[in-house]
């Protein structure tokens, strides 16, 4: 199973570049779901959504649609995995209202400076929290310290059938490096890819070319990176490994373009 989508279904500029004119915002998700079969929810990073909000997401999308969702930052950033079991339990209970449409939940962590938090201490915090996740809920873990892509982390995730998020980000390896390490970094029966890009560089390019930061045009050439990612995607057996890949607007300036190009690259070599 291969699912490719964007990180969020709303962004400044999409009302012009992606959605038909005069589409009400309440219908954005419904329209998005006619173009892509999955999305990563960014809003859950900022707060646990209400039950009625989650119910609305479920009813506005077709049966085969899948939602990935970021774990709230109160867990990953504010409490930094300490005394957060209650929040995690509430979040999972609410998101479970999506039923079969619930995809992976992403624990996204920031970059930790040298001496701030060592990998061993991070794992001492992470593993007990992951052990509170109910069986059957898919989990991906994103770290932004490339030296942490080490056996200790990979083993901890493999033992729990949880995925290491493969991230295209300035702090992380190039796509070609992920490809070289291949299945060593596949720690679950699914793979989770995030193409994030360089926030400041992309926003500056958009501002220079459009006069404002509006995500409606690709302004950075990602051809080489997308080719490497498509090669990695093709290298995996999708009958055994479900694969979820999401593109952020900061990758090139307009995530829907990147997803379409990635789709074309993957299909062209099938």
Proportion of helical residues: 25-40%
Total number of helices: 11
How many domains make up the 3D coordinates? 1
Distance between the termini: 14 Å
Strand content: 15-25%
What is the alpha-carbon Rg in Å? 18 Å
- What is the CATH fold-level name? TIM Barrel
Q: Which geometry do the CA atoms define?
A: globular
How does this model look, in words?
With 270 residues, the protein is α/β, with parallel strands linked by helices. The protein has one domain: Alpha-Beta Barrel (TIM Barrel). Helices cover 38% and strands 16% of the residues. It is built from eleven helices and eight strands. It has an eight-stranded parallel beta barrel with strand order 1-2-3-4-5-6-7-8. β5, α7 and β6 form a beta-alpha-beta unit. α8 runs parallel beside α10 and α10 packs across α11. The two termini are 14 Å apart. The mean pLDDT is 94.
Layout: helices, strands, pairs:
Layout: E1 2-7, H1 14-17, H2 28-32, E2 38-41, H3 51-59, E3 66-70, H4 73-78, H5 85-95, E4 102-108, H6 119-130, E5 139-142, H7 151-159, E6 163-168, H8 175-181, E7 190-195, H9 199-210, H10 223-235, E8 242-247, H11 255-268
Parallel strand pairs: 1-2, 1-8, 2-3, 3-4, 4-5, 5-6, 6-7, 7-8
Helix pairs in contact: 8-10, 10-11
What structural keywords apply?
single chain; 270 residues; alpha/beta; TIM Barrel; eight-stranded parallel beta barrel; 11 helices; 38% helix; 16% strand; globular
TL;DR?
The protein is α/β, with parallel strands linked by helices and 270 residues long. Helices cover 38% and strands 16% of the residues. It has a single domain (2-268), classed as Protein of unknown function UPF0759 (TIM Barrel, Alpha-Beta Barrel), CATH 3.20.20.410.
């Amino acid at each position: 199973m291969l699912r490719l989508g964007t990180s969020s279904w709303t962004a400044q500029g999409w009302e012009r570049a992606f959605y038909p004119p005069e589409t009400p915002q309440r219908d954005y998700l419904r329209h998005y779901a006619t173009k892509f079969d999955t999305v990563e929810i960014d809003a859950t990073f900022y707060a646990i959504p209400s039950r009625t909000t989650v119910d609305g997401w479920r009813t506005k999308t077709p049966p085969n649609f899948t939602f990935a969702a970021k774990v709230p930052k109160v867990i990953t950033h504010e409490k930094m995995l300490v005394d957060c079991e209650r929040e995690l339990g509430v979040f999972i209970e609410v998101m479970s209202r999506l039923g079969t449409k619930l995809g992976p939940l992403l624990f996204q962590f920031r970059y930790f400076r040298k001496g701030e938090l060592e990998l061993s201490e991070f794992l001492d915090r992470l593993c007990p929290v992951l052990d509170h996740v109910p069986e059957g809920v898919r989990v991906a873990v994103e770290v932004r310290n490339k030296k942490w892509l080490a056996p200790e982390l990979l083993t901890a995730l493999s033992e729990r059938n949880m995925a290491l998020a493969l991230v295209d980000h300035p702090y992380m390896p190039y796509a070609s490096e992920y490809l070289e390490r291949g299945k060593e970094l596949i720690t679950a029966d699914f793979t989770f890819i995030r193409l994030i890009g360089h926030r400041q560089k992309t926003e500056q390019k958009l501002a220079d070319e459009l006069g404002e930061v509006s995500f409606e045009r690709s302004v950075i050439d990602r051809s080489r990176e997308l080719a490497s990612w498509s090669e990695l995607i093709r290298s995996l057996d999708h009958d055994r490994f479900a694969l979820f890949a999401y593109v952020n607007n900061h990758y090139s300036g307009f995530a829907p373009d990147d997803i379409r190009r990635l789709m074309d690259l993957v299909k062209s070599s099938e």
